[in-house]
Design a protein that fits this description.
This protein is mainly α. It contains 18 helices and 4 strands. Helix content is 74%, strand content 4%. Strand 1, helix 17 and strand 2 form a beta-alpha-beta unit. Helix 2 runs antiparallel to helix 5. The chain is extended and about 115 Å long.
């Protein structure tokens, strides 16, 4: 058995070594002049890879040994089972631990000879892969151990052993990484990915644990206040198994999150931090709050306008403790991280613009989906009422109608508010905002999806109609196509609107390739000016209105019946230049001849004496 275990461990290592050697050989053949540096890089990755694998084997082996020891001390386990765990633990420890010590010693000597080795990407990947795996294992097992300590349930030697070993591995590598310090470039990027990844995981544990505690507490209070008459206040106990389990999850998640969140303090200008704050913490809190409020609004409207499933209000509104707990936790998550973001915005300077823009489009997308779904349900419900058989009273439309009202009540303000902010940014920043990648992706994805849905459902509608006209299918066509019609109307409106937005952006970008210079100030005139414009053939008249506004003068248009054909377009710069020439003229009346060759100024000449 020991031979089989050792073989199963050495075979993957030999396979990894063979693949790395093959890659190194190919790299040396292709790179030529770079073969020496590339070989060093591959050798470094090879070394750190073997160090990682041997560490995993040794840690698992030590954890099995500790499990066997704890099982012998505190539990009654069948001797054969304990011997199997002990034998496997000894095998993994004997194989993995010496190999890890060998490679780790060699790496430490390399660091002493070459101090720049601490900044290598391979070393940073090794550290943070080990720390991530050990942190996750520590968190999961710590929750189980803490539940055992709080609830007094059966002792788990496996969870306790895993926690001890994983926490030891994490602490050792944490101290070593802190000793070497943060670095710039790719090494610091790996550090940030680890830190914010673990922060997100632990934050989810914290939020889930606090939510469960609030849910259990509010549910007990709700049952005490509105429960059955024989339910007494003493029957509700806050310190129950559910609360204890939730407390263990919240404590472990909170401790892990606070440790990593403090560790990342000061990383204000990081893009990864902005993604974490905007797209996960703030947006996640907002989604929790909006979802809880939406469900609560639906249940309220259903009770007064729809067909509730329960006849008793106590049963129907029994979901409200959970909704209140979720809304409270989501609000705390949202407000805290939004406050942090606002405080860091001044220090980050202009680095938040792209993330703010992306956040706005994401929330607008969520609101648009909710709004489109509400319109679809509303239209399909109305078509269902129109297709109902005469004389039959059916109240099944009430709940879909209530659902539509709920979705519209949530979707309209969410989409409208954030889309209004997005459009304000367009007016403020102009070409920069219209050409932003997030805006282009948002517009084309939304427009493409609405067109696709509209075409698919239009095909379904026409199929049902033609099938009925040809004598097949059902006679109640409107009932069969109600959902397709609802989707068609909702997506059709979205297609038309966002097509207009795309066209507006296209025209604005085409007309503003570069920011226009402010118009030059025109000289002051002593007397009012009158301009007579003679248009030859079909000459362009687009310059006359802006010319009159620039001059503040009367412009009379005469069109020549016969003359050269053709039209010439004029730009705002042409209008400004022409206005300057006319304003500088001392004449009170000027005639312009506009034809296909251009604009000709005809000024009256003063009478010559003698």
């Amino acid at each position: 058995m020991a031979v089989a275990i050792i073989t199963s461990l050495l075979f993957p290592l030999a396979l990894i070594a063979g693949v790395i050697a093959l890659v190194a050989t190919l790299a040396r053949r292709r790179e030529g002049a770079r073969q020496e540096s590339r070989a060093v890089s591959l050798r470094r990755l090879f070394t750190y890879g073997l160090t990682l694998v041997s560490l995993a084997a040794g840690a698992v082996g030590i954890a099995l040994l500790v499990q066997a020891l704890l099982s012998a001390l505190f539990t009654e386990t069948i001797i054969t089972r304990r011997n199997d765990i002990l034998a496997l633990g000894l095998a993994l420890t004997v194989v993995g631990t010496p190999i890890w010590l060998l490679f780790w010693t060699a790496l430490e000597r390399t660091v002493q000879r070459e101090p720049l080795e601490v900044q290598s990407l391979g070393r940073r990947l090794y550290f943070f892969l080990v720390m991530a795996a050990s942190a996750l294992a520590s968190a999961v097992t710590a929750i189980q151990v803490l539940r055992w300590l709080i609830r007094g349930t059966d002792f788990s030697s496996a969870n306790t052993a895993t926690l001890l070993v994983a926490a030891g591995v994490w602490t050792f590598h944490w101290l070593m990484e802190r000793r070497e310090g943060p670095f710039a470039g790719e090494a610091n990027t790996v550090r940030r990915l680890y830190g914010y990844g673990i922060s997100l995981f632990s934050l989810a544990l914290l939020v889930g644990g606090v939510n469960d505690i609030l849910h259990v507490t509010l549910s007990g209070a709700y049952a005490t206040l509105f429960g059955a008459p024989d339910l007494l206040v003493e029957d509700f106990t806050l310190w129950n198994d559910a609360t204890k389990g939730a407390l263990a999850t919240a404590v472990v998640g909170g401790a892990l999150w606070w440790r990593h969140w403090l560790w990342l303090a000061g990383d204000v200008a990081s893009t990864i931090r902005q993604v974490y704050l905007y797209l996960f913490a703030i947006l996640g809190g907002a989604i929790i709050v909006v979802t809880a409020l939406s469900i609560g609004l639906y249940y309220v409207l259903q009770w007064f306008m729809g067909n509730p499933a329960a006849a008793e209000a106590r049963v129907h509104f029994g979901v409200f403790p959970g909704l209140v707990a979720a809304a409270g936790v989501g609000s705390g998550l949202w407000v805290y991280h939004w406050t942090v973001l606002r405080e860091e915005a001044a220090m980050a300077g202009g680095g938040l613009g792209a993330t703010q823009r992306l956040y706005g489009y994401l929330v607008a997308t969520v609101g648009l989906v909710v709004l489109a779904t509400g319109l679809t349900v509303l239209f399909s419900t109305l078509f269902g009422l129109l297709s109902a058989r005469p004389g039959i009273i059916d109240f099944s439309w009430r709940n879909p109608f209530v659902l539509a009202l709920t979705l519209l009540a949530v979707g309209v303000p969410v989409w409208g508010g954030y889309w209004r902010d997005v459009q304000r940014r367009v007016l403020r920043y102009g070409l920069e905002e219209r050409t932003a990648l997030s805006r282009r992706v948002f517009l084309y994805i939304i427009f493409g999806l609405t067109v696709l849905l509209a075409l698919v459902n239009l095909s379904l509608v026409l199929y049902r109609v033609f099938d009925a006209l040809l004598g097949g299918g059902t006679t109640n066509v409107l009932w069969e196509i109600r959902w397709s019609l609802g989707i068609l109307l909702a997506t059709g409106a979205g297609t038309a609107y966002y097509w207009s937005v795309l066209q507006e952006d296209r025209k604005a970008v085409a007309g503003q390739v570069a920011p226009e210079a402010p118009p030059a100030e025109l000289p002051q005139r002593l007397a009012p000016l009158t301009v007579i414009a003679v248009l030859a053939g079909n000459a362009d008249v687009s310059l006359l209105r802006p010319l009159a506004e620039a001059l503040g003068a009367e412009v009379h248009v005469w069109r020549q019946a016969m003359g050269p054909q053709g039209a010439q377009a004029y730009t705002p710069a042409d209008v400004t230049a022409l206005a300057q020439q006319l304003q500088a003229s001392p004449a009170e009346e000027i005639m312009l001849l506009v034809d296909s060759s251009g604009i000709h100024i005809m000024e009256p000449r003063p009478p010559q004496s003698g």
